Automatic annotation (TrEMBL):
It comes from the Bacteria. Pfam families: TPR_1 (PF00515), TPR_16 (PF13432). The keyword rRNA-binding does not apply. It comes from Oxynema aestuarii AP17. The keyword Ribosomal protein does not apply. This is Tetratricopeptide repeat protein. The lineage of its organism: Bacteria, Bacillati, Cyanobacteriota, Cyanophyceae, Oscillatoriophycideae.
């Protein structure tokens, strides 16, 4: 069974009032997420949510139906350590996960997935330099492994080493296409976030569009695109992107969700002086997240201005 890691990366905006959006950094743990526009603003960062990768069951060969079944092989000690470490990392038991990955590396120091798991555990514990060293070793061992480069990029992104992170995401996309539980779309959305930080805004929008081209139901990609367009003052386009995010059936990440899209959509509508629609959007955000402080404040301010 292949050890695999799930990373979902993104970008989010915290809209302060109507004119001065502020970008926030997410919690740098193994549950890095998509960012949410709430009273506890967090910005999207990819998240390590490792799950065992299921293996396909081959169809029986013709004439093999009457053959006795071959007993399933017992997992090796290394496979067991990787699987259990993955579960513990997903459960946010980072110290315990690190202990298992340490043992896996002791058994086989050239096992790339053990190195990735150890790096992700160290990153979750905010031991970033050690984490990056592990991922450096992983890409040395398997230079074309897309998952290793993606994982390295997310840690570099977490620590604001943006140029190095961008290079890693580029290497991931040029690699062997082995993503574990991830996808090329996840690399594109992470790449877009880094490009935005580097003030390469059109390139960032292009990266979000590439993620959408690979998965037009990727809610977070639409959300990120909408937020970037909102920051650029392209309010009509931002509303279209938020509407697509809200209509999609895809991944929002761990904390970004429809409430964030409804709130930012309301901001765009208010800036376009479409006040009744803005009020409706803020209301929708509050129905989903009643403690959405900014939506509540914005709604109250708007109603006061309109004397409603």
């Amino acid at each position: 069974m292949r050890n695999s890691f799930k990373w979902i990366g993104m970008m989010a905006a915290l809209m302060t009032g109507l004119t001065s959006p502020v970008w926030a950094q997410t919690d740098p743990t193994g549950s890095r997420d998509s960012g949410q526009v709430t009273d506890e603003e967090t910005t999207p960062m990819p998240t390590a949510a490792p799950e065992p990768e299921s293996e396909a069951v081959p169809s029986p060969e013709p004439g093999s139906e009457d053959l006795p079944e071959t007993p399933a092989a017992e997992p090796s000690e290394l496979q067991s350590l990787l699987s259990e470490g993955q579960f513990l990392l997903n459960s946010k038991k980072y110290d315990a996960a690190l202990d298992l990955y340490d043992r896996a590396v002791d058994l086989d120091g050239d096992n790339v997935d053990a190195r990735i798991g150890r790096g992700m555990s160290l990153a979750a514990l905010q031991r970033y330099d050690e984490a990056i060293a592990e991922l450096n070793r992983a890409v040395e061992l398997r230079p074309q492994y897309s998952l290793a480069w993606l994982s390295r990029g997310t840690i570099l992104k977490d620590t604001d080493r943006n140029e190095a992170a961008l290079e890693s995401f580029d290497r991931a996309l040029a690699g062997d296409g082995s993503w574990g539980e991830n996808r090329a779309a996840d690399a594109h959305i992470n790449r877009g976030s880094v490009l935005w930080r580097l003030d390469r805004r059109e390139d960032a929008l292009d990266a979000f569009d590439r993620a959408i081209a690979l998965d037009d139901q990727f809610a977070l990609a639409w959300y990120n695109k909408g937020t970037a367009l909102l920051q650029e003052g392209r309010y009509e386009e931002a509303i279209v992107a938020y509407d697509r995010a809200l209509a999609s059936q895809g991944d929002w990440g761990l904390t970004t969700g429809p409430a964030s899209a409804w709130y930012n959509r309301g901001v765009a509508l208010e800036l376009l002086e479409r006040y009744e629609e803005a009020i409706e959007s803020y209301d929708r955000a509050l129905r989903i997240t009643p403690n959405h402080t900014k939506a509540r404040q914005q709604l109250a301010n708007l109603r006061d201005r309109l004397d409603l």
